[in-house]
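Example for tutorial group B:
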């Protein structure tokens, strides 16, 4: 394969379209969450992921799992957790069975803010997808996104 190989060029164009769609969606949601709730997309995602924890087997996520879920490095995730903890939206505590483990829970204030922000996030996502669907290059990707039924 060479750099001008049509298959490689098509693959690169597909990747560019996917990156463009992601960027447009994230920017649209970011504006809506910031203006309506003072949250970034990353902060919202972190609150959302952590709010889904439970007390059953495997119900609490370690920081590595949280970092993977919000697509950040562990150090960036730790800084994000610290910022939200400083705002009273998260709290950390030691794992009761392994004193080396630290878990993070969403506080009542964090759950309240998340509940208020969720409709904003969902509406902004819908708007961004509808807008992208009007672009012939992005419409097929929008259809794929809309057809996914992936558990959170």
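The residue assignment follows.
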């Amino acid at each position: 394969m060479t750099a001008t190989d049509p298959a490689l060029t098509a693959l690169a164009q597909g990747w560019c379209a996917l990156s463009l769609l992601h960027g447009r969606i994230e920017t649209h949601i970011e504006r809506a969450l910031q203006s309506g709730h003072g949250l970034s997309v990353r902060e919202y995602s972190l609150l959302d992921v952590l709010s889904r924890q439970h007390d059953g087997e495997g119900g609490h996520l370690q920081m590595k799992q949280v970092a993977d879920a919000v697509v950040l490095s562990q150090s960036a995730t730790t800084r994000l957790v610290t910022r939200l903890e400083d705002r009273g939206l998260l709290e950390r505590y030691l794992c009761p069975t392994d004193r080396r483990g630290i878990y993070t829970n969403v506080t009542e204030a964090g759950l309240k803010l998340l509940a208020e922000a969720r409709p904003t996030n969902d509406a902004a996502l819908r708007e961004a997808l509808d807008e992208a669907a009007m672009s012939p290059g992005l419409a097929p990707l929008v259809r794929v996104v809309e057809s996914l039924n992936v558990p959170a």
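The mean pLDDT is 90. Compare this with the pattern of hydrophobic and polar residues in the output above.
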